[in-house]
What we know:
Layout: H1 2-17, E1 30-36, E2 41-49, E3 55-63, H2 66-79, H3 84-99, H4 124-141, E4 148-149
Parallel strand pairs: 1-4
Antiparallel strand pairs: 1-2, 2-3
Helix pairs in contact: 1-2, 2-4, 3-4
The protein binds zinc ion (ZN).
Zinc ion is lined by residues 36, 39, 41, 64-65, 67-68, 129.
Amino acid sequence: MDDLRDLYQNVILDHNKSPRNFGKLEGASATADGHNPLCGDKLTVYLLLDDDDRVSDIRFDGMGCAISTASASLMTEFVKGKTKEEIEEIFQRFHELVAGDSDDVEAAPELGKLAVFGGVRGYPARVKCATLSWHTLQAALHGDEDAATTE
Ligand code: ZN
């Protein structure tokens, strides 16, 4: 179990240090801002959707704690090439993993590396850091003008 925890820690540290898909996306078809006032995390998600509602490109920028940055980085890697529908489904599973009520904390296999955020379960303040980028992505997908917030 300790090895697994180290592995999870390393994934988060790595993505925080070198976030993937970081920066503005020129020609984005949708953007949204997200804010987690509890921690001070702020980020913007830039999306490019193709004609089939598939994410053909995604980037993010902003400032946040290690968990919010790593989560945004992994999220962008994960959703690239996926459809809106597939993203809804995976977000639900991700949310169940980090914030669900059930005692079954086993991560769904399709979550892949996102399973590392199972560690924030039971820490409501950290859950908001881990889900901020996903809420912001949802806002961008749904064309919400208002900033997404974890409150
Ligand atoms: Zn945070």
